[in-house]
Amino acid sequence: MKRFISSLLTITLSCAMLHAQETLKPFTIHWTADQGDGTYINPIVNADFPDCDVIRVDDTYYFVGTTMYHFPGATILKSKDLVNWEYCANPLERIDNNDAYNLLNGKHHYSQGQWAASLNYHDGKFYLYFICYGKSGVDNTQNILLTAKDPEGLWSMVKMNDHYYDSGWLFDDGENGDGYLYVACGIGDIWVNKLDPVTLKKISSERVISVGNGCEGSHMYHIGDYYYIYATYGGTEGSQTIFRSKNPMGPYEEHQGRVFERQHIHQGALVETQTGEWWTVLFKDNGAIGRIPYLEPVVWKNGWPIIGNNGIDVSKNSKPYRKPNVGAEHPRTYLPTNDPFVAPSLGKQWEWNHNPVNEAWTLTERPGYLRLYTASVTDHLVSARNSITQRIIGLNPEGTPSNKYSWCYGTIKMDVSGMHDGDVAGLSVFQTPYSFIAVKMQDGKKVLYSERCTFNSQNHKVAETKAGAELTNDIIYLRAALNFGTNTCRYQYSYDNENWRVFGVSMTMGYTLDFFVGQRFYIFNFATQALGGHVDIDWFSTEKDFTEEEFYSPETLAQMAIAQAGEERQAEELFSLKDGSFVPDLYLSGNLKSAASVSTFTSVTGGIGGWHYPAAIDVSPYNYLVINLLRTPTNPTVIRIYDQKTLWMAEPYELDVKSKSIVVDLHNMVTPSGHIIDPSHLYTVGMMAGGTASIYIKEAFLSMDGQSPTTDISIPTETEPFSSDQQTYFTLDGRRLNGIPQQKGIYIMKGRKMWVK
After folding, report:
1. In what helix (H) or strand (E) does residue 428 lie, and over which residues does it extend?
2. Domain boundaries, the chain
3. Is the pLDDT score of 734 beyond 70?
4. Distance CA 385, CA 260 (A)
């Protein structure tokens, strides 16, 4: 068998790689609002992205929505033209580390969590504020502010004391602004709060609107002579309204006539393009698929905005409307759904149901697969930890009218050889009711199994079950097929990905506030008896007919891993001190400082400087991290190593710095509470000094012997011979293989990361 080997550190594509890609089958099922002729239709994204807020920074538009109890969450999209969107970031790693967010002891946060965010950009920094309701209501509310210099980089979290329900933030620093920060918020009664824009301390607060009817979802703007509060009458009415005043603290008058009345299009943002056009992005309540974003034009008349076609969707009945004028044409983009699980981190379309158990999933233990260990013992999927999920997008085959709903598919290829008795693993379409197709192992036999269930707060009910025949193979394909036009969901299975058989319970999909999100695909593995089993997910696809060989060449798979890891930097580059890889202060703001071999930063009280990666990187093939300093620190200094992304909440491994040479045993890092830091999931390595002190770093590198750097990375050729007696291969977690790898994936050979196919 021919094996193509490509170094994962090669960032550019070769000509041969491009030729290989030309023969690949393109993805044909995805959503686009862009009609390809300068027009678009609504929705701009046919998936659950509610509570829209949109801003423009230079020539890029950023969109944030609500993700509730899914992590990492607070999803941010980016666009160049307001029609074609891509994933930007999921900046919210977690909210709290408690039983409810961990799905323990019968507790949960379904229908709760992060919602209705306000996204702003001020003085070089992004601000993302939202509230997180708990089951106890307001008494258990978290008020969270995330900030970042780069929306695709590190976000810092602060929990604020002040509570601003469904808020819109306005940094009033425009041409006629007074420089303060104003926050409009509330439901029924709308308040405006005046804040110091630097300290974020409240100066004053006034109730400026009292109209009832569930008026909420406020966003605040200063346009021309007026301050505007753009709000929704939520609940069952679902219409949009706007208030204005020449004073930010009121009094406000309401525009005559509500917008999109009885159309359920509401709650969103106003945004101005580079050419001076105005547009609004709102969401539409659209049944089982969820709340989907619409783009509508805005013109101003007598100081009031005229939305859409006088309050009617401009693309009603799928009538195309011209795209926004942003000064240039931009190509179509598609939100990704398919995943061969070859990259060192999960794609941005994936989130976990509640907090993940990071020790119970891995992309590196069996390269090229997502391995899911059982993470909870439970009788039902609602309480199953480590269910991985993505939104179901209303997909359309290329060339068919975008307004027509067709069948959507979600398919997994799964290896069940690692299952234990009592384990249940498979694929679900999840809301309430929810259903799934799975493999269940009982009495040493693996059988097909399906359920349809309902869930209401604490009340879980199994409505229908179906057991099938014993499996004849440990490799099985499971598929969900659904249609949002008829709200129908049904399931199939196959042993060869060609001959499909209908199996399981069918379901009529719905949307309820018990989960408060649109339908999602869930991939899961839970135990009903004891932990210890696992399944391996080879790939997930939304194509009707899919194989990795048709859609991904070995070159393409390698390049996907490179692209994903390249923007987050490879493990071998972790301590290279290249420009941008070193952050002097990961807690506070600061300029990047780096040099070819020496970096210096001044640590302040409570600050930490070092190397940070937005996605976990794997350094487990190496034994040691070595950091050599030019001089011993004058103040007490510690090394801090994190295996969680959010520094604010994580517990790091700490090592006292007592000399100029620091050697960290990467496989013996234990926190004071006994948590073992996983070297295959490192996010940050930093240094922190007591008080104010300068730290002078000479060099830092990964090492096998604790003294010298690892072998430089070289690029093998396709014709380079490989045989078991000439080369030794290791998995990414350091396990030595006997002979040539027999599975596709990423391996270490002679200090090089290799792709083997």
Report:
1. strand 423-430
2. 351-551, 568-703
3. no
4. 40
Cβ 115 vs Cβ 129: under 8 Å: no
Distance of alpha carbon 302 from the chain centroid: 42
Could you give the residue numbers annotated as active site? 51, 216
Range with the lowest mean pLDDT among 141-150, 312-321, 600-609? Answer: 600-609
CB 325 within 8 A of CB 25: no
pLDDT value, residue 62: 98
Which phi and psi angles does 287 have, rounded to 5°?
75, -140
E runs forming strands in 443-549: 445-456, 459-470, 475-483, 488-494, 501-502, 507-508, 520-527, 534-541
Strand partners, 694: 602
Pair of tokens at residue 85 = 């969107």
The pTM of this model reads 0.78
Which homologous superfamily is 568-703 in?
A: Galactose-binding lectin (2.60.120.430)
pLDDT of residue 298 exceeding 90: yes
Is the pLDDT at 127 greater than 70? The verdict is yes
CATH hierarchy code of domain 351-551: 2.60.120.200
With CA atoms as reference, report the closest residue to 441 among 341, 532, 537, 540.
532
- In b/e form, how buried is each residue of 212-224, taking b as 16+ CB within 10 angstroms? eeebbbbbbbbbe
Instruction: Answer yes or no: same fold for 351-551 and 568-703.
Output: yes
Q: Which range is least confidently modeled, 21-30, 37-46, 673-682?
A: 21-30
Where does the pLDDT of residue 587 fall: very low under 50, low under 70, confident under 90, or very high at 90 and above?
A: very low
- Rounded to whole angstroms, the Cα distance separating 143 from 190 reads 18
